[in-house]
TrEMBL record, chain A:
InterPro entries: Exosome_cplx_N_dom (IPR025721), Exosome_RNA_bind1/RRP40/RRP4 (IPR026699), KH_dom_type_1 (IPR004088), KH_dom_type_1_sf (IPR036612), NA-bd_OB-fold (IPR012340), S1_domain (IPR003029), S1_RRP4 (IPR048565). Keywords: Exosome, Nucleus, RNA-binding, rRNA processing. Gene3D superfamilies: 2.40.50.100, Nucleic acid-binding proteins. Belongs to the RRP4 family. Residues 111-191 form the S1 motif domain. This is Exosome non-catalytic core subunit rrp4. It is found in: Nucleus. The lineage of its organism: Eukaryota, Fungi, Dikarya, Ascomycota, Pezizomycotina. GO terms for molecular function: RNA binding. Residues 8-50 are annotated as: Disordered. CDD domains: KH-I_Rrp4_eukar (cd22525), S1_Rrp4 (cd05789).
UniProtKB/TrEMBL annotation, chain B:
Its main location: cytoplasm. Component of the RNA exosome complex. Specifically part of the catalytically inactive RNA exosome core complex (Exo-9) which may associate with the catalytic subunits RRP6 and DIS3 in cytoplasmic- and nuclear-specific RNA exosome complex forms. Exo-9 is formed by a hexameric base ring of RNase PH domain-containing subunits and a cap ring consisting of CSL4, RRP4 and RRP40. This is Ribosomal RNA-processing protein 41. One of its GO terms (molecular function) is RNA binding. GO terms for biological process: nuclear mRNA surveillance; poly(A)-dependent snoRNA 3'-end processing; rRNA catabolic process; U4 snRNA 3'-end processing. The lineage of its organism: Eukaryota, Fungi, Dikarya, Ascomycota, Pezizomycotina. Residues 13-144 form the Exoribonuclease phosphorolytic domain. Belongs to the RNase PH family. It comes from the Eukaryota.
TrEMBL record, chain C:
InterPro entries: ExoRNase_PH_dom1, ExoRNase_PH_dom2, ExoRNase_PH_dom2_sf, Exosome_comp_Rrp42_subfam, PNPase/RNase_PH_dom_sf, Ribosomal_Su5_D2-typ_SF, Rrp45. Residues 33-164, 192-261 form the Exoribonuclease phosphorolytic domain. It comes from Orbilia brochopaga. Keywords: Cytoplasm, Exosome, Nucleus, RNA-binding, rRNA processing. It is found in: Cytoplasm; Nucleus, Nucleolus. SUPFAM superfamilies: Ribonuclease PH domain 2-like, Ribosomal protein S5 domain 2-like. This is Exosome complex component RRP45. Belongs to the RNase PH family. GO terms for biological process: exonucleolytic trimming to generate mature 3'-end of 5.8S rRNA from tricistronic rRNA transcript (SSU-rRNA, 5.8S rRNA, LSU-rRNA); nuclear mRNA surveillance; nuclear polyadenylation-dependent rRNA catabolic process; rRNA catabolic process; TRAMP-dependent tRNA surveillance pathway; U1 snRNA 3'-end processing; U4 snRNA 3'-end processing; U5 snRNA 3'-end processing. GO terms for molecular function: mRNA 3'-UTR AU-rich region binding. It comes from the Eukaryota. GO terms for cellular component: cytoplasmic exosome (RNase complex); nuclear exosome (RNase complex); nucleolus.
């Protein structure tokens, strides 16, 4: 029996909203199909944001030439043919013949080599459990950190007893994803002088998808107003640490050619310290300004990378905003973002 | 008044649905707010995350847990519903079971998806609004699902509306779509939830006595309502997605 | 905590593949109930229901109490269920499982909210004295379909129960002893019977398979379930399908109609068993019985 359902009266008609892409809108294979079929053609690796949004249950394609990737599943229709259906709301991305859906918002999924900022959740006998905003907490083994007194030193039972002197609950650290197990649980390491305990700064979280993957996720930004240099650790997992720049020990090693052992001795003193250095009020002001820029960019759904951060910071300086909470204030934040975008278009 | 219900709708008219994604900012992985008439529900989803201390999580998939909170001011009388309230538990089980079978849990081994629902105002169709809000919050959290789960209610009035309402005979009045609180307490009604826009029914819940012959009509109306709800929710998801993508300037 | 052991993959495949060929492990038809055995105790209102290896006991008791202030004309009726380790080691005392909640909730919806028992008939003196009827359900053995069995048990026990006669004269209320005056049956308006369907994956034709009266093994393997409560007049008192596999609406309707058919059979079976028991008790004196049935036939 055919039943006609009257739609409810509209509430606020947000713009047009009347795009006619309801129902089984299919992927336009013809447009991209020829690109993909010329296998040797240097096709775009991934056509990010093919522009169209798919929602769960939407038919992506029933063409058997495509392979299904993340965010899709196979559905068998009554006549036995298989089609690729989306399981997420997001945009289609194509890598050669692989179709996957990139969700609008998602939890961080660790990958080997990612730089992450994490927080210690639990101290166990030979390891730490670290929150990295992923589906599973990561582990950091005692053997994967730099022990004071030299990389090559053997781990002893004394170290196990003193495990809390390195990291204890609530400590923040920057680390790299070393391995992943079958469940996708990450194991971290900090065996580089770039990584380790974080201090002298502020912590910030954003959605994992808002950090653009870059060559380097540790930025050092010169600031004005006498703020000196500021380090920004943009964890791929969406955790961000902004801190006063400390003369990196690894830099020192390259310049002065200090012997490894000497270096390690120095490292051992500083690396697990829980005491902040003295930070001038000017530096604090600049740290918080950068924090506001990041919040404003995220609010405007703009992915964070070095370029946008620099442009945003410049724009913020020009506006010379006072106070440290304008990042969440839409009006001021939006002005900064617009100014930054204008600058980017100019360059 | 001819042909109209007590709130001025026709038999096949939905109440105004207003929905919104990402209402709770970064405190949850996904969140949504749904208003169906005066029924208002807020949903937040956390996960996939490390399972709580109680269990270690299933090795073959994610566990779904659900908590429902009724605000004391949500009904006509101020009632504080505790955690062991039967109605609360019933809702929790219904939502939990529904989504455990729709979320593609096998992709998220040893993790937990926690759904938390806050019923802010009740005006009939609480279960339906809870299911709709959860669907949107899960989409916002980027949790893989087979399809939308959309819910709607349908009631069977004893006497027809008269007037020019289509289809129904005099002795078989048209079922009411999307009943409000008054209608819900007055006439037999059922809640139905479908997976996707089709006829795949995930949830049916009816608590009142009705002739078996009338069930079919009620189900049919409910299912058509679900399809309409899906369109409305889908539109909002697309609008939200567009807004989100526009910002990136790409 | 003892947990129900999981079914092995081989067992699972065996059962599911057999189902695809319309075979069940215990040799029943897909839509057949196991034999229902009703055993009545010496007292009225005591029934032992056996459904295959599932065994459920129901006991009705009555006492005189004050009515609720907002419902002065109505008697009280409560159903209490508790799954204990007696039925299966997987159930714990004092920690109600999800199944526990489901059973008590659906029994409540099926019997109490559908007004199977006429609550007003339990009134003795308005706003002062009413009967409080209590149904205690005990689960003795669990082999699936606990809900269906307990619903049959409660309904049968209610129909079997006899309430002592009460006479009111002025302020005095006299409850007559069973020996003194013949007790009367409860006023039951209709007999709602629960039928639980278990859904499995698609068969060859792409249709969802559904079973009736699943055993514990089948319950562990099913992809979804739905309980429909119907009475013999074809009125649906309650439907509960929360989650599980999504099923075509058409199949749901087919289930509902099948449930109505099955309920007619069960209803008749309960009626027969009650009559037989009455015959046995009264050694052939049928006048009594007619009185009882007339009420139930409404």
């Amino acid at each position: 029996m055919p039943i006609q359902i009257i739609a409810p009266a509209p509430f606020v008609d947000a713009g047009d909203g009347d795009d006619d892409d309801e129902g089984g809108v299919r992927l336009d294979v013809d447009n991209d199909g020829d690109v993909a079929m010329e296998g040797d053609a240097p096709s775009r690796k991934t056509s990010r944001h093919a522009g169209r949004i798919v929602t769960p249950g939407e038919l992506v394609t029933d063409d058997p030439q495509w392979m299904r990737g993340h965010g899709t599943y196979l559905s068998t229709t009554a006549d036995g043919s298989q089609s690729i259906v989306s399981s997420l709301a997001g945009t289609i991305s194509k890598t050669n013949k692989l179709l996957s859906i990139c969700a609008l918002r998602f939890r961080y999924v660790p990958e080997i080599g990612d730089l992450v900022v994490g927080r210690i959740l639990e101290v166990q006998t030979k390891r730490w459990r670290v929150d990295i905003a992923a589906p599973h907490s990561a582990t950091l083994l005692l053997s994967s950190i730099n022990l004071p007194g030299g990389i090559l030193r053997k781990r002893t039972s004394t170290d196990e007893l003193q495990i809390r002197t390195f990291f204890s609950e609530g400590d923040l650290l920057v680390a790299e994803v070393q391995t992943l197990n079958s469940d996708g649980q990450a194991s971290l390491h900090t065996r580089s002088l770039k990584y380790g305990k974080l201090r002298n700064g502020v912590f910030l979280t954003v959605d994992a998808g808002m950090i653009r993957r870059m060559k380097s996720h540790v930025l050092t930004m010169p600031t004005s107003n006498g703020g000196g240099e500021v380090d920004i650790y943009l964890g791929v997992n969406g955790y961000i640490w902004i801190a006063k720049h400390t003369a990196s020990l690894s830099d020192g090693a390259g310049d002065k050619g200090v012997s490894i052992t000497r270096l390690e001795e120095e490292a051992s003193e500083a690396i697990y310290s829980n005491v902040n250095e003295e930070i001038s009020p000017e530096t604090r002001a600049e740290i918080s300004r950068i924090g506001c820029v990041i919040r404003a960019l995220v609010k405007a759904n703009i992915k964070i990378d070095e370029e946008m951060l620099n442009l945003g910071y410049e724009a913020a300086l020009e506006e010379a905003l006072q106070g440290y909470d304008w990042g969440s204030d839409t009006a001021a934040g939006k002005r900064i973002v617009d100014a930054a975008l204008a600058k980017r278009r100019k360059t | 008044m001819e042909g109209l219900r007590n709130d001025g709708r026709r038999w096949n008219e939905l109440r105004r649905i207003h929905c919104q994604l990402s209402t709770s900012g970064s405190s949850a992985d996904g969140s949504a707010y749904v208003e169906q008439g005066f029924t208002k529900v807020l949903c937040t989803v956390t996960g996939p995350a490390e399972p709580g201390s109680r269990q270690r999580g299933r090795s073959d998939g994610a566990t779904v847990v659900c908590e429902v909170y009724f605000a004391a001011f949500s009904g006509t009388d101020r009632i504080k519903r505790g955690r062991n309230d039967k109605k609360v538990q019933e809702l929790q089980t219904a939502v939990q079971k529904t989504f455990a079978s729709v979320i593609l849990t096998h992709l998220l081994a040893r993790s937990e998806i926690a759904i938390s629902l806050h019923v802010l105002s009740q005006d009939g169709g609480t279960l339906a609004a809870c299911i709709n809000a959860t669907t949107l919050a899960l989409i916002d959290a980027g949790i893989p699902m087979a399809d939308y789960v959309c819910a709607c209610t349908a009631g069977q009035p004893a006497i027809g509306l008269g007037g020019g309402s289509g289809g129904g005979d005099d002795d078989e009045p048209d079922p009411y779509l999307d009943v409000n609180y008054l209608e819900e307490s007055d006439i037999p009604s059922l809640t139905v939830a479908t997976v996707g826009g089709g006829e795949k029914v995930a949830v049916v819940s009816m608590e009142s006595r009705v002739r078996i012959e009338r069930l079919e009509a009620m189900l049919a109306v409910g299912i058509s309502g679900c399809a309409r709800v899906r369109e409305i929710m889908d539109k909002e998801v697309r609008r939200y997605g567009k807004e989100k993508l526009d910002g990136t300037g790409e | 905590m003892p947990k129900e052991p999981e079914t092995s993959l081989a067992e699972k495949t065996f059962v599911l593949e057999a189902l695809k060929q319309n075979l069940r492990v215990d040799g029943r038809e897909l839509h057949a109930f196991r034999d229902v055995q009703l055993i009545f105790g010496d007292d009225y209102g005591f029934v032992d229901v056996r459904l295959g290896k599932t065994r459920v006991l129901a006991r009705i008791s009555a006492e005189v109490t004050k009515p609720r202030s907002d419902r002065p004309f109505e008697g009280l009726f409560t159903i209490s269920t508790e799954l204990g380790p007696m039925a299966s080691p997987a159930f714990e005392v004092g920690r109600p499982s999800e199944l526990d909640h489901t059973i008590s909730r659906i029994l409540e919806r099926s019997i109490r909210r559908s007004h199977a028992l006429d609550a007003e008939s339990l009134c003795i003196v308005t706003a002062q004295r009413v009967w409080s009827i209590r149904a205690d359900v005990h689960f003795l053995s669990h082999d699936g379909s606990l809900l269906d069995a307990s619903c049959i048990a409660v309904i049968t026990a209610l129909a079997h129960f006899r309430l002592p006669v009460v006479t009111v004269s002025g302020e005095d209320i006299t409850i007559h002893d069973v020996e003194e005056r013949v007790p009367v049956p409860l006023s039951i308006l209709h007999w709602p019977i629960c039928v639980t369907f278990s859904f499995f994956g698609d068969d060859e034709n792409g249709e969802t398979m559904y079973l009736l009266d699943a055993t514990a093994q089948e319950e562990a393997l099913r992809a979804g379930d739905m309980t429909i409560t119907v009475n013999k007049n074809g009125e649906i008192c309650q439907i509960a399908k929360s989650g599980g596999v999504a099923v075509e609406a058409e199949i749901l309707m087919r289930c509902a109609r099948l449930a109505a058919e099955k309920v007619k059979v069960i209803d008749k079976m309960i009626g027969d068993a009650l009559r037989e028991d009455e015959l046995r008790r009264n050694k052939g004196n049928l006048d009594w019985l007619k009185e009882g049935r007339a009420e139930n036939d409404r």
